[in-house]
Amino acid sequence: MNNTKITNHKGSILLMSVILMTFLIFLLGALINTTIICYKLKSSQHTYTYNGYMSESGLDEGVALAFILYNNVLDECIEIYSNLYHSTLLTVIDLNKGHYHLSETPLSKYIIQNGLDCYILSEQAIRKDFEDFFIKTFDDEFNKIIKNYQSVIDSYIRLSIIKEQFQFNEGRSQYYLQSSYNLKNVPRKHQITIKIAPPELSDTFISCSKINFEICHWRILYGY
Q1: What is the pLDDT of residue 224?
Q2: Half-sphere exposure in the Cβ direction for 103 (13 Å, CA)
Q3: Which helix (H) or strand (E) holds 27?
Q4: What is residue 88's predicted lDDT score, i.e. its pLDDT?
Q5: Using one digit for the tens of pLDDT, what is the confidence trace for 36-65?
Q6: Nearest C-alpha neighbor of 181 from the set 43, 45, 55, 50
Q7: For labeling, which of 5, 64, 133, 173 is most exposed (least CB within 10 Å)?
Q8: Which residues contact 129 (CB under 8 A, 6 or more apart)?
Q9: Which comes out higher in pLDDT, residue 125 or 35?
């Protein structure tokens, strides 16, 4: 009887090597996949944060444009109504001297007859006209500016007025201004509410005593 033992293990070693290599390949693949996922998550978070900053920058520009416009409209209105005030005052003097009748002047809406032959200037009428003109001029120009807006920071920033409210009983306008930025399909939005009202002026309409420009309700919108 032959008792010789087979001691050649080359086949089993080869099999173990194949199994080990297969395991290492799967392990390496999982490691690479995990690394890629982590990179994408980190990149996405960076894009999300960056887009948020850019969206907020758009609102900063919008507020700056609104404030500059407010002051420009204020200067224009002060010049117009300061001249109107003094022209009406001269007209009142001529009326009280009997130079002509109230119906003959185009400024009659700003003049009150106080007695038979006494006329006075109606500051309330001039102020009401000033406030209406200021609100309308600001609204027309602000809508035009936002419609033609081109960011100096990044051309992909978008600004829009999504809603307007006119509170005529308070002489106030309210604008809901929204800024959006979308890079790598990661949209971000920010929204702000701007409230404006005609400024408080001196008695002779020469200077401004208080600017009524208010920023409130700054909101972050996380996506579309």
Answers
A1: 35
A2: 0
A3: helix 10-96
A4: 92
A5: 776 666 666 788 888 989 999 999 999 999
A6: 55
A7: 5
A8: 81, 109, 110
A9: 125
91 torsion bin: left (phi>0), alpha (psi -120 to 50), beta (else): alpha
Report yes or no: 152 and 179 within 8 Å, Cβ to Cβ: no
Q: Which residue has the tokens 């003959």?
A: 104
Contact 186, 47 (CB under 8 A): yes
Give the C-alpha separation, 107 to 222, whole Å: 54
Q: Give the end-to-end CA distance of the chain in Å, rounded to a whole number.
A: 86
- Tell me the β-bridge partners of 189: 180, 221
Q: Quick check: pTM over 0.85?
A: no
d(CA 173, CA 40): 45
**What strands, in cross-sheet order, belong to the sheet with 158-167?**
158-167, 172-183, 186-201, 208-221
d(CA 136, CA 140): 6
Owner of token pair 């978008």:
158
Asked if 74 contacts 133 with a C-beta cutoff of 8 angstroms, the reply is no
- Residue-wise pLDDT tens digits, 161-189: 987 776 655 667 888 899 999 988 888 99
